[in-house]
UniProtKB/TrEMBL annotation:
Record lineage: Bacteria, Pseudomonadati, Pseudomonadota, Gammaproteobacteria, Oceanospirillales
Gene3D superfamilies: Winged helix-like DNA-binding domain superfamily/Winged helix DNA-binding domain
Protein's name in the database: MarR family transcriptional regulator
InterPro entries associated with the record: HTH_MarR-typ (IPR000835), WH-like_DNA-bd_sf (IPR036388), WH_DNA-bd_sf (IPR036390)
Annotated keywords: DNA-binding, Transcription, Transcription regulation
Pfam family, one: MarR_2
Domain HTH marR-type: start-end pairs: 6-143
Length: 152
C-alpha cells in the first residue's frame, strides 16, 4: 500500500482522537475536576461496573493492560478528587470495590453528553450507508492492530 496514504490515515485518526480528548478535558475542567486520558477510561469502566458489584483494581489492570502501579495512581487521583470511593467486597473483605460518588456520576454523565455531542457532530452530513462503511473500515483497522499486537 502507498506509504503516504497510510500516514495520512494514521494522522487523521490521531487528529480525531485529539479532538475527542480535548473535549473530554474541557468537560472535566467545566466540572471542576482534573482528569484526562486513563483516568477518564477508568471512570468509564467503574461506571459500567457500578450497577453490578463495582470494579476492582485488578479488573482495571486486566482491562487496561497497564501495570498495578499506574492503576493505583489513577485510582488514587480519582479518590482524591472525590470521584470514586472503595467499599469492601461482601464475600471477600480483602477486595475493595470501586464505586462512583455523586460527583463521579455527574462528571461521567457530562462525559457521556460530550461523547454524544461529538459523535453527532462528527457524523453530521454522512448518510447511514457511509456511517456503516466507516464503522466497518474502522473495525478492520482496529482488528489489524489487535491481530498485530497478539503476534508480537
Amino acid at each position: 500500500m502507498n506509504k503516504q496514504i497510510s500516514d495520512d490515515i494514521f494522522e487523521a485518526i490521531a487528529a480525531l482522537n485529539h479532538q475527542i480528548r480535548a473535549r473530554h478535558h474541557q468537560a472535566s475542567r467545566d466540572q471542576g475536576a482534573a482528569i484526562a486520558g486513563m483516568e477518564f477510561k477508568a471512570l468509564r469502566y467503574i461506571a459500567s461496573q457500578t450497577s453490578h458489584q463495582g470494579a476492582t483494581q485488578k479488573d482495571l489492570v486486566e482491562r487496561s493492560g497497564r501495570d498495578k502501579g499506574q492503576i493505583a495512581r489513577v485510582i488514587g487521583n480519582l479518590k482524591k478528587q472525590g470521584l470514586v470511593h472503595a467499599i469492601a467486597d461482601e464475600q471477600d473483605k480483602r477486595i475493595s470495590r470501586l464505586i462512583l460518588t455523586t460527583a463521579g456520576q455527574q462528571l461521567y454523565a457530562s462525559f457521556k453528553q460530550v461523547n454524544n455531542e461529538v459523535a453527532e457532530q462528527a457524523i453530521s452530513g454522512l448518510t447511514l450507508a457511509e456511517c456503516q462503511t466507516l464503522l466497518g473500515l474502522l473495525s478492520k483497522v482496529n482488528n489489524n492492530l489487535a491481530t498485530s499486537k497478539n503476534q508480537d
